[in-house]
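Thread: quick sanity check before group meeting

JM: Hey all, I'm pulling together slides for Thursday and realized we never actually wrote out the predicted structure for the chain we discussed last week. Dropping the sequence here so it's in one place. If anyone has concerns about the input, flag it before I start.
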Amino acid sequence: MDMPINEAAAVDHAITSRRSIRRFLPTPIPRATVEAILDAAARAPSGTNMQPWRGYALSGAAKDAVVGAVQAAFDAAEPGHEQEVRYYPDAFFEPYLSRRRAVGWDLYGLLGIAKGEAAKMKAQHRRNFQFFDAPVGLIFTIDRRLATGSWLDYGMFLQNVMTAARGRGLDTCAQAAWTNYHRVIRPVLGLGDEETVVCGMALADPDAAENTLVTARTPAASFMRFDGFAGSTDSIDSDPRPCGTCEERTGGANV
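JM (edit): ok, ran it. Output follows.
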């Protein structure tokens, strides 16, 4: 059954208006709102309905405890803080390298951070570990015994969280940076031995200049081949030149 045009537009808007926000207003978000977002997101598909997602919704003193512990470890520059599951390749290559660089310098430009200003870059990265001032922080985990398919399912759930937040006029920032500090997070939240940190996520109302950053995306015709459609001769563009920004790790957040 076709969806009414106005409903389709609303869904599209929730998807296309999603951005990674890096400064939030302190306006409290009620538990009922957070729970409604997560309940909607849990409709994500998963292989044999395994629903591999698990998480911790943090506000107030609970959030402050995690923030304080991780920022202390970050400030101490303690060795050995690494991701349990690698998010990025050891070496970037095109077109991904150019996309990564472009979004990083676009963001730093908005923040007034010039190339080589390492202290300012570090300070911006540190803001990950206060959820960019959001009153609600989410830490997501997965059972380490699960396989790659469950991680793919998890990605659909996370996208649903961000889309459902937009449907309620809220914004998010998915944050891979938290995964480096799983050893610090574990005792604070009481994670089970089987739990691996997937990511953190900030949730709130947006504020400030860095939130004007809008990243580019490549059109479907550049990454999909369309076969068998009437009047269509489109195919995947073999041009290797970068044509947009997909993700970055500047500040450890996705875009």
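AS: nice. Strands lie at 54-58, 136-143, 171-175, 195-204. Residues 11 and 187 are 39 Å apart (CA to CA).
JM: adding both to the slides.
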